[in-house]
Structure formats: C-alpha cells, structure tokens
C-alpha cells in the first residue's frame, strides 16, 4: 500500500501501511464499525498516535465519535493508526451524499489520499434491514466521486448483524438490491454485530484480506504473514 511515517510517534522508520477506508451513508454504523476494528488491537496493545495529514481531523482520543443523532456525526475525514502485526490506517469518512449539508470538496480530496487503487481496502458499510433509496446506486456514485473502480478493492460490510434472524446468504439472495452490490464487489462481504464487544469479529475481517485480495497483499509480503 503506501509507506508513511507517523508524526509524533517513536516509529522513525518507514513502515508499510494498510489503509482501511470506510464509506457509506450516515447512520449505517461507519464510525461504530471503525471503532470495532480499532478494538482488534486490544489484544496486541498500543494504539499509535492519530495520523496528522492536511485538513483531516486528528485528536488524542483512541476512538471515533459515534452516537445516535438525527444529523451526521462525522463531517470530515478522520484517521487513526493501529497495529495488529501489520500497521493500519483506519479512515472514517463523512456521508458524501448528505443532502442537507454539502460536504466540502476538500474532504473528498482528503479521502482520495487514502482511497487509491492498490493502496487500500474499502469497506462499503450497509446496515442490514435498513437499505434506503439513497443507497441505490451508491457503489456507482462513489466510483464517480472517487474517480476509479473501487469495487475491485471493496468488501461490503453489513452492520447490525445481531438483528439478522436468518442466514446472511439467504438474506442477501432475497434482496436484489443487496445482491447486486455484493456481486459487483466480487461476493466479498462481512458482518459485524455492532452491539458485541468481541474484537474477534474484526480480526476475522482483517484475516480475510489476503484471501480476498491476493495480488494486493502479495506486494507486501513482509506484512502478509501478519494478516494470514
């Protein structure tokens, strides 16, 4: 992916950084899912300092802001570093299609810095049982905004898996709109139970990366063993 020196940290040497970029509509659980991913480091310990770049937000907190709200909580790109064998930049993004408050063009440009072909894994976050009209065509619309075929690097991340009362494959198969998105992304998907504090579900996601993107991870063989 990309090499980055984390400012303000004790890691002075350049390390391979795997970018995990979460995209999707407001209210789907992007920030909560990002926090679930960060929690995977708990067993390996030590969150690295938040990455400081351009106008992206950084602070000393180890989690992204996430709470119920009638308006988007995340209004700018936020990046936090973690290390689970390999080093990861977890990127939380605003809803680029929120109609009542146009997202600044600068935020889209910040997102593009992390979301580049061959440099990231994209998590398209969709809440199970809450697919809205605004999410129809979301994959194609995001590709237009970002300027490349993100589906080739995307895993569909379904949230609120605790609300699912049937097999996830059955659930997807019975809903053509979800089936279209999953198939467009090479049938790559994962389910998070957002009320669960079990970080193993995040580790299970991370361990899928080499299988889902073998060419991608083979470029970074030194870190691949940490993901398998």
UniProtKB/TrEMBL annotation:
<dbReference type="InterPro" id="IPR045058">
    <property type="entry name" value="GIMA/IAN/Toc"/>
</dbReference>
<feature type="domain" description="AIG1-type G">
    <location>
        <begin position="15"/>
        <end position="228"/>
    </location>
</feature>
<protein>
    <submittedName>
        <fullName>GTPase IMAP family member 8-like</fullName>
    </submittedName>
</protein>
<keyword id="KW-0342">GTP-binding</keyword>
<dbReference type="InterPro" id="IPR006703">
    <property type="entry name" value="G_AIG1"/>
</dbReference>
<dbReference type="InterPro" id="IPR027417">
    <property type="entry name" value="P-loop_NTPase"/>
</dbReference>
<dbReference type="Pfam" id="PF04548">
    <property type="entry name" value="AIG1"/>
</dbReference>
<comment type="similarity">
    <text>Belongs to the TRAFAC class TrmE-Era-EngA-EngB-Septin-like GTPase superfamily. AIG1/Toc34/Toc159-like paraseptin GTPase family. IAN subfamily.</text>
</comment>
<keyword id="KW-0547">Nucleotide-binding</keyword>
<dbReference type="GO" id="GO:0005525">
    <property type="term" value="F:GTP binding"/>
</dbReference>
């Amino acid at each position: 992916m990309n090499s980055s020196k984390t400012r303000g940290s004790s890691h002075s040497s350049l390390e391979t950084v795997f970018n995990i970029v979460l995209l999707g509509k407001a209210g789907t659980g992007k920030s909560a899912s990002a926090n679930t991913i960060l929690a995977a480091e708990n067993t390996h310990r030590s969150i690295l300092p938040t990455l400081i770049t351009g106008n992206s937000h950084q602070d000393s907190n180890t989690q992204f802001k996430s709470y119920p709200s009638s308006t988007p909580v995340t209004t700018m790109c936020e990046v936090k570093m973690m290390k689970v064998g390999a080093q990861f930049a977890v990127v939380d993004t605003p809803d680029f299609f929120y109609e009542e408050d146009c997202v600044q063009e600068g935020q889209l440009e910040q997102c593009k810095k992390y979301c580049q072909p061959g440099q990231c894994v994209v998590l398209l976050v969709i809440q199970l049982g809450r697919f809205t009209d605004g999410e129809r065509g979301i994959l194609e619309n995001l590709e237009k905004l970002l300027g490349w075929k993100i589906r080739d690097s995307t895993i569909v991340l379904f949230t609120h898996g605790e609300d699912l009362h049937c097999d996830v494959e059955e659930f997807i198969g019975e809903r053509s709109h979800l089936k279209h998105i999953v198939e467009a992304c090479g049938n790559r998907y994962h389910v998070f139970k957002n009320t669960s504090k079990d970080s193993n579900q995040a580790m299970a996601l991370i361990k899928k990366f080499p299988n889902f993107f073998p060419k991608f991870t083979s470029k970074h063989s030194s870190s691949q063993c940490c993901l398998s």
